Amino acid sequence: MITVIVVLVLIMLALLGAPLFSVIAAGALYGFYIADIDLMVIGIELYRIAETPLLMALPLFTFTGYILSESKTSQRTLNLIQSLIGWMPGGLVIFAFVFSAIFTAFTGASGVTIVALGALLYPALINAGYTEKFSLGMVTASGSLGLLLAPSLPLILYGIIAQQMDLDVQFTISELFIAGLLPAALMIISLSIYAVVKNRQFNIETVSFDKNKLIKSVWEMRWELPMPLVLIAGIYSGYFAISEAAAVIAIYILIVETLIYKEISFSKLIDIIRESMAMVGSILLILAVSLALTNVFIDAEVPSKLFDIVKNNVDSKVSFLILLNIFLLFVGAILDIFSALVIIVPLILPVAISFGIHPVHLGIIFLANMQIGYMTPPVGINLFISSYRFKKPIAEVYKASLPFVIVLLFVLVVITYIPELSLFFIK
Amino acid sequence: MHPGKVKIFLNALHLLEDIIASGLLMIIMFFALYQIILRNFLDSGFIWGDSLLRVLVLWLGLVGAILASRKGKQISIDVLSQFIPVPYKIYIQKLNLLFAAIVCFIISYYSGQFVYLEYQDNTKAFENIPAWLTEIIIPIGFSIMGLKYIAQIMNETKI
């Protein structure tokens, strides 16, 4: 009875906006208290976060993402997109999807893509003859495209959480990184097909291909373009681990943007460090306390009870997956992605594994759901950012992005029921 | 304390946080790079290098958490507060801060006990580095966070 009241009070506090880490920590402390465990254990639990091998990647990729979004990388990216596409019908949209996805992967899917790249793309799309509604929807949708691509923060975070859980089925972070490639490509292709079909009847301007313009825009971006290649080459050649790749890229981008392009001043750099490390700190904090809460749950056998309930009501893997998708879409609509990852993954991962779902596949399903959650009310963050950035009412943004959401839902179904898309290289 | 003095104290603290966060981040980046160079080109390296890096990331994370407690930068769900009439919002805000402060102090107290135990047992983290030294940031970090929340409750007159 008391436990029920405590849980309700904590949920109430969370909904009223108390810092999430304090609510989760209070839950963990209460759990230790009723299980008669010395509260000193909270020190051990929090220190455990330092034993995660992947942890270093988190601050370094976040830092890189903040630097990229504060410099003129987005302008150079747009120039490159425009010079690549002139000749091709629908080309602007297709390349916009591709580069938005890469940009999002590197900047951590925090809405930066809409603010930095989308803000430049939007007028470019309208100039090229696309309707306002279509352009708005497209820019909003591209804000979370790339969530499944390395090194996006949520993807890394999922890896960290799963690594901490001591699962029967093990996987490496590289496997998780490769797993996102085909599903992300499928999303980009489907959205591109929709965009091209949808805009057939409009008179979209095409210009003849200009080799010099292309060379110029590639040349302007010559320092930033190698970055994804460094990541891929470094990791797969075995010269450095992913956390070390993060260090190499962070140093490289720091030098490129401050010393070569000279777009980040010293005082700006301090601002960037402060902002990005505050972000890292708040993620690490809820990650650490939720790992403690997970242990409380495991001691109280919550996952196995949860599994029994699910098992009694769901008889097949397929119906479990259907329920999982509905549940996750709902979660994605009310929780932001970091809260959802630390709270939900430890609970559903053991259940999913016992239904025979590979943890890598679950991660992809989870993030694909969250990606759509970015665009669904009430807390779809992309809707708010677009509404704010392009000064449109939220309802209009929602209507504009709805067709894109439908396309992504279709892809989600494909990703969920064809595990081979995510796992083709593991078996 | 006088509100003005609180402000001066907070400003000094903020500057210190900026310096420590920047320093830690740079040390982590360049030490990791140094390790890669040693391993791939000189066939050597520090065995304890990875352990050191992880401890530094823990420290950076907690300093970052302190940075985030500055002005509502902590991740929160916050779906109900938009329905609360403006005059009451300040009280909800203070209630949230007070709750967070209490939790921080509890964590600080108990993790402090844990660190003290490790000090008494003379546990080693790696090489000759005592474990308590690597863990001490946990009680310190949460104390500072708690104090900052209290300072915000005292300072905040409007949202």
Oligomer: heterodimer
Strand content of chain B: under 5%
Separation of the first and last Cα atoms of chain A: 48 Å
The total count of helices of chain B amounts to 5
Query: Unreliable segments of chain A (pLDDT under 50, ≥5 consecutive)?
Result: none
**Mean of all residue-level pLDDT scores of chain B:** 86
Summarize this, please?
The complex is a heterodimer of chains A (427) and B (159). With 427 residues, chain A is mainly alpha-helical.
Characterise this structure.
The complex is a heterodimer of chains A (about 425) and B (about 160). The N and C termini of chain A lie far apart (about 50 Å). Chain A has 22 helices and no strands. Chain A has about 425 residues and is mainly α. The radius of gyration of chain A is 22 Å and the shape is globular. In chain A, helix 5 runs antiparallel to helix 12 and helix 15 runs parallel beside helix 18. Chain B is mainly alpha-helical. Helices cover about 75% and strands about 5% of the residues of chain B. In chain B, strands 1-2 form a two-stranded antiparallel ribbon. In chain B, strand 1 and strand 2 form a beta hairpin. The radius of gyration of chain B is 20 Å and the shape is elongated. Chains A and B meet through helix 1, helix 2, helix 3, helix 4 and helix 14 of A and helix 1, helix 2 and helix 3 of B.
